[in-house]
Amino acid sequence: MKRTIPSVPQLYRNVRRWTEIVSILSKYGLADWLSQFHIDFLTNLLSASEGQSQSNLTQHQRIRMALAELGPTFIKFGQLLSTRPDAIGQELAEELSKLQSDTPSDDFETVKSIIEEELGKPLDEVFVDFKTAPIASASIGQVHLAKISADKFSCEPADPVDPKNGMIDVVVKVRHAGNETIIETDLDIISGLAQLAQRIEEFKAYQPVQVVNALSRSMRRELDFEREQRNLIQFAGMFEKNNSIVTPRPYPDLCSSRMITMQRIVGKDLKEASRNGTSKEKLSWVASTGADLYLQMIFNHGFYHGDPHPGNILLTDDGKIGLLDFGMVGRISEQLREDIESMLVAIVNQDVSMLTSLIRRVGNCPPDLDDAALSNDIADFVGQYSTQNVSHFDMSGALKDFVTVVRQFKITLPAEASLLIKVLVTLEGTGRMLAPDFSLMEIMKPFQRMLILKRLSPTRQMRKMRRFYLEVEQLIDALPTRLTNILEQVQSGSFDVHLVHRRLGPTANRLVVGLMTSALFLGSSLMLSYKVPPILFPTEVMGPDGQIVRHLPWHGVMDLSALGLAGVIVSLLMGLRLMWAIRKSGNLDERS
Question: Is residue 319 predicted with pLDDT exceeding 90?
Answer without folding.
Answer: no
